[in-house]
Amino acid sequence: MADDYHKLLKRQIRKHLNGNSEIVSKYEGFLSAVNLTYFQTDEERELIERSLDISSRELLAKNAEIETMIALFPDAIIRIKRTGEIIEFHEPVIREEFLYPEDIVGSYIQDSFGDFIGKKYKEAIDELGKTNKLVTIEYWIEQNDKRFYFEARLQVIGQKQILVVIRNFTDHIRTMEALRRSEQRYALSAAGANDGLWDWDLINGSIYFSSRWKAMLGYEETELRNSIEEWYRRIHPHHKERFKKAVRSHQEGSTPHLEIEYQMQHKNGSYIWVLTRGLAVSDSMGNMYRMAGSQTDITRQKIVEEQLRHDALHDRLTALPNRALFMNRLENCIERAKRNKDFLFAILFIDLDRFKVVNDSLGHLIGDELLVKVSHKLKQSIRAVDTVARLGGDEFIVLLDGIKDAAEASHICERILKTIAEPVMIGGQDIYITASIGITLNTELRQKPEDMLRDADTAMYRAKNEGKAHHQLFDEKMHQWAMDRLHLETDLRRAVDKMEFEVYYQPIVDLHSNKVIRMEALLRWQHPERGLVYPMDFIPLAEETGLIIPIGEWVLDKVCRQSRQWQKGGFEGVDIAVNFSARQFEQGGLPELIQDVIAKTGVEAFTLEIEITESIAMKNIEHSIRTLSELKELGMKIAIDDFGVGYSSFGCLKFFPIDHLKIDRTFIRDIPDNKDSKAITRAMISLTHALDLHVVAEGVETAEQLAFLKDNGCDSVQGYFFAKPMPVSEATKFLEDFGGESKKGG
Ligand code: C2E
Ligand code: MG
Ligand code: MG
């Protein structure tokens, strides 16, 4: 800084003074100027006094050595008369000469630097006239949008002259400002965030740590020496080099400031995360002499960040990797397979069977718990190098990172299926679930992870379609099959446009009166090429795509008209039952829709019955009770379909305003051979009666089944034993032939 210049100059001048008396005389003039301002000892002052009268303009200006010295002195030296007239002017060679007007000699100093500065000089000259003491003024000049700061010192020399030394303080001011700014910044952040402060003297190497800095690491104010080593040795071994490098690159000027996050060891041995910020300060020569900054404890923030990072890549419920992380690992595998032709890996796409039923009937909490348990089972079934991820819902996916052959993948699938099939105990009850798995290997020429995933999904879908609870390896035929599904969707949309549907009817026979009391309306799709398509093959797709809504309205309209015709045609005792799927039932406004159709078709509401499955009814019990009550108010009857396959309890049923319970076909199917099915059926009949409901048995195919049901007091039956679902003409003929009375029932 400025003082360094003085020292340097002093040293040089002294050298000359001591070494050579001849030079002394030569330099007297110049020395007088310099000493006057900066030399403080009596000896020096004496010299100044003596030199004042001998100083000569020529001596100063023409001596080359003096020129050199002046050049070393970065400021301007001006000799003026007491009036302010400039008699001599030396400007620095390397400094901003442009700041001084040209041909300044002969002009008045008060006029040379503009009005504002001129006024200051004038005042200074006046002051000197009064006191004869050194006068200092400060000012700045703006040039090219930059501000340059100057300090001018004026002193009388001889009787008639004044020596002016102008110093450029710009660098110093800028440095001070930067330092002040940084200090302010750190003082501020320290107050706000409870930061620790540090201040490192780069000249003598000592460092100051604030008490907060120490406290952060568990130390008392009196602990730790003022040495940078105290800092370095507490930095986590993995971060030490990075830290030193950051400090170095800031000191070398590669970074505008120091800012680094790393771990430091606390006194108690644990590691905390800290953020260190700092700024190095240089003097006007560019020498760094100090570095100071703050230290913040960011451990908590790091934990939150870590959590967020984890959350972004993991499933919240099961904590398994999520799709994003899985895809990333899959990509790595694909890359590896490109480099190494022998590297074989596989994807297993796992979907739980009938998970929806569990979720809907037992509630989401139990459903969630089941998913967590399944995720544990999956993790236990694979190796550490493999990845199991949750894609969402009840879909899981496994990446088998390196396998021998397809058989190995198949073997792992069997193991997975076996553990999943073991019951899990949740909330005091055993829950049984199975899964379907699709496998795909990287043998096909697929480069994209999405394609592999799609194929595994297709294979899984296939496994599901083939009866669930098993696994299936993807092959090209499956791709075709998936394409077919896509075509089916296109076809279904067209079918809705053209209403290529037909309603079939299947009789339900009352076992007390032996009469057909109801016809169940069952939908068929008359596909132009494929012929008759059954609900199982298109209702799920219609549900998925929402096409079930227009289809359902069409069915309802058809059914109402048919009911009116049969009522008019003399079959007064025959109602019609119509099925509703989840989407239709959940969509608001079902009672209103039915009311509209009833009004439009003129049908009597009491001749209609709606069937919803047990799992739909249990999904949102409140909504079910409300909707069913409204339908009931319209005068309709209500049946719970496919009873016994879900998880609902009889206890729940009493809240529903229902009339009939339909025992699912799967129980009837195994009668009379299966003891369990018989026992369950018997129990369901008596429990239904206990609730004052009528019970209908579905899927009665044999005389034995009928006899068993009759013996056990079943109210009515439906099944191939009486009739298959029939088109309306046949159904009408059936009613005519049997006059609403079943011969077989008797
Ligand atoms: P669901 O309501 O339980 O209908 C009874 C199913 O059992 C019918 O199958 C019927 O043909 C079949 N079935 C009846 N008796 C026997 C028998 O003795 N043996 C055997 N093996 N099967 C028998 P379908 O017509 O294929 O209908 C399947 C399901 O599609 C229905 O089950 C119902 O849930 C749904 N569905 C049918 N029509 C409609 C509709 O218009 N709208 C909605 N949303 N779903 C419908
Ligand atoms: Mg039904
Ligand atoms: Mg059924």
Describe what this molecule looks like in 3D.
It is a single chain. This protein is α+β, with helices and mostly antiparallel strands and 746 residues long. The protein folds into four domains: 2-174, PAS domain (Beta-Lactamase), CATH 3.30.450; 194-304, PAS domain (Beta-Lactamase), CATH 3.30.450.20; 314-474, Alpha-Beta Plaits (2-Layer Sandwich); 489-738, TIM Barrel, CATH 3.20.20.450. The protein has 29 helices and 27 strands. The strands form five sheets. An eight-stranded mixed barrel has the order 18-19-21-22-23-24-25-26, surrounded by five helices. Strands 2-1-5-4-3 form a five-stranded antiparallel sheet, sandwiched between helices. β25 (694-697), α28 (703-711) and β26 (716-718) form a beta-alpha-beta unit. α14 runs antiparallel to α15 (364-381), α15 (364-381) runs antiparallel to α16 (406-421) and α17 crosses α18 (476-498). It is elongated. Residues 1-10, 15-40 and 48-66 have low confidence and may be disordered. It binds ligand C2E and magnesium ion (2 copies). Residues 641-642, 662, 698 line the site of one magnesium ion. The site of ligand C2E has 25 residues, from β19, α19, α20 and β23.
